[in-house]
Amino acid sequence: MDAPSRSDLPPTPQGASLSAAAKPVSRWSANMRQHGLLGLFIAVPLIAVLPLPDFWISQLSYIGLYALTCLGLVLLTGVGGLTSFGQAAFVGIGAYTTAWLTVNMGVSPWITLPIGLSITAVSAFVIGIITLRMSGHYLPLATIAWGLSLYYLMGNIDALGKYDGILGIRSLSLFGVDLGQGRGFFLLTWAFVLAAAIALLHLLDSRSGRAIRALRSGALMAESMGISTFRYKVTIFVIAALFACISGWLFAHFQRTVNPSAFGLKMGIEYLFMTVVGGVGHVWGALTGAALTKLLDDQLQVLLPRLIGTSGSYEVIVFGIALVLMLKYQPDGLWDFVERRLPRANRAVDWADAPALAERAKPARGELVLDVKEVRKQFGGLVAVNDISFQIRAGELVGLIGPNGAGKSTTFNLITGVLAPTRGSVLFRGEEMAGLASRDIARKGMARTFQHVKMIPDMTVLENVALGAHTRGRKGVFSAMAWLDTAEERGLFKEAQRQLDRIGMGPHLHELAGNLAMGQQRLLEIARALCADPALLLLDEPAAGLRHKEKQALAEVLRQLQREGVSILLVEHDMDLVMQVCDRLVVMEFGTLLMEGTPEQVQRSPEVRAAYLGTEH
User: Fold this and answer.
1) Is 520 exposed, middle or buried, given 0-12, 13-18 or 19+ CB atoms closer than 10 A?
2) How far apart are the C-alpha atoms of 451 and 457, rounded to whole Å?
3) What is the rounded average pLDDT for all residues in the chain?
C-alpha cells in the first residue's frame, strides 16, 4: 500500500511545539535510555551487596572489561561501518602503560590512566590517518597487520618483560580503600561501563552522532552536507581505542600481571565476535555479547569434556558454528531481536522556544551567483562535458535539460564538487569552486539533492533533515558525549521542523525515513538541502517518483522559494514542471550547449525538438 501523499495529510503549523502524541523517536536512545540504564544503576550496587560467590563477582568484572572494548566496536564497526580486528592491541597499550609505570617508576595508577589514554590517542590517531583511507577488505587486513605488529612489539621489548610480561602490579585503591579483585573493583569497572554507555548514547543522538551514523551508507550525501567523513572516521577510531585503553588499565590492576597473550590477534577477533553476537549496531548489544560469550565460554569448558569424554578447546568449534548460524539467521545480533519486540518509546523534545539559527548573508536579487565558464570533463578519450558556459543570478530558477546522456548529471557534479573539471572555471559568488571538495563547496552556501535518493533509512525524517543543518552547528563529539549540546540540538531540530513544514512534510516528522514512499523521500531531500540555508539550491530530478498532486505541490514550493530569493538550478526530465517554473533553460546535447533561453524560446526551437525527437519536425 502506498504511503499517504503529502496533500492527503493535515499541515503542521510552522514552529508549533510537538504534542504528546508526536515526539521524536530515536532508535539509539528511546527504550533503553529510560529503562535499561535505570535497571543497571539499580542492579550494579545491588549485586555488590548480595551474598554472591566471589567467582561470580569476578566473572561480572570480566564481562565489564570486555564490554568496554565492545562499546568502542559498536561505535566503530556497528555505526561507522569500519571493521577492526586490532582493538586488543589498544587494550594492551593501556595495560602495559600502567604496569610499567607503577612497577618500575612507582607512579600512582590514577596518574597512569591519563598517560595511557594520551599514548593510546596519539597511536590511534597516527594509525587511523594511515589506514582509514582504505576501503573494502583492505581496512580489516590493515587492522590485523598493526594488531600483530603491536603484539610482537610488546613481546620483544626487554623493558616490558618480553613474552613473560610484567608481574607484581599493585591493585587499585580509592580514597585509601583497596579495591582488590572483589566487589570494590566490580563497582569501579561497571561505573566505567555505565559512563561509557551513557556517553555513547548521548553521542549517537547528537549533531555529530547523525554524521557518524551517515558514514556506513551515506558518505557521499554527508560530504555534500559539509561533513568531513574522514575526520569523523578518525574520531570514532580514537574513541574506540580510548575505551579499549580504559579496559586494559583496569585489566592490568585486576590481573596484577600482564603479558602479550591477552592482547594478540585472537583476542581482537574475540572482541569483534562478542560485539557481532550481541548486536554490533546497538549499544546494549555490546553488554549482551560480552556477557553471553564470557558465561558460555566458561560453561562450555566444563560441559563439553563431560559430553564428549575428552578434553580440548572444543568451545572454539561451538562458537564458530554459533557465529555462522548467527550471521545466517540473526545477522544484526541478539539485541536486535530483543529491540524489535520492545515497544518503541518516545523522547520528549520541545524546541518551540529555541532561538532561530543564524542565517548566511544572501546575495541581492539580480546579483551573479553562479558563473560556469567553459567547463570541460574528460574520462580518458570520452568528452562528457564539452566547454559548457552559463550563469545564474540571485532569485532565478534555471533549468538544465537535455536528452538522456546529454551530460546534465556530470555538469551538476562538476558544479557541486563531486567531480573535478578537466579544465574551466566554476565561480560561486565570485569565488572559484573548481577543485574544491564537495563539503567545502557546501559550507560556502551550495546545497543539493541527488538523482537517486540518498538518506539514512533507520533515522527519522526529522533526523535526516537535521543532518542538512550540520554546518550551522558548532558542538563537537566530546560536547555531545558530555551532554553539553542540548541548546544547540533544540535549535537544529526547530530548523528541521520548519523546513519540513515549509514543504508540507510536517505530519511525517517522526516516521523512519526508510518507510516513506519515493515521492516523500524526494521532498525529504529538498527539506534537508533547505536546512543548510543555501544561497544556491541544486535539485537533481526532484520530480522523479512524485505523483501528480505532489508535482503540483513541488511546483508551488519552487515558486515560493524563488519568491523568497533562493537561486535554484533544476535538472529535470519532467518538461511540464520545467516549463511551469523555470525562468530560463539551458539545453544540453552530447555534452555540449545546444541553446539557452526562456521556456517559450526553447519550446519553439527546431534544434531542441530534433534533440528530443530525432527529427526537425
Assistant:
1) buried
2) 17
3) 86
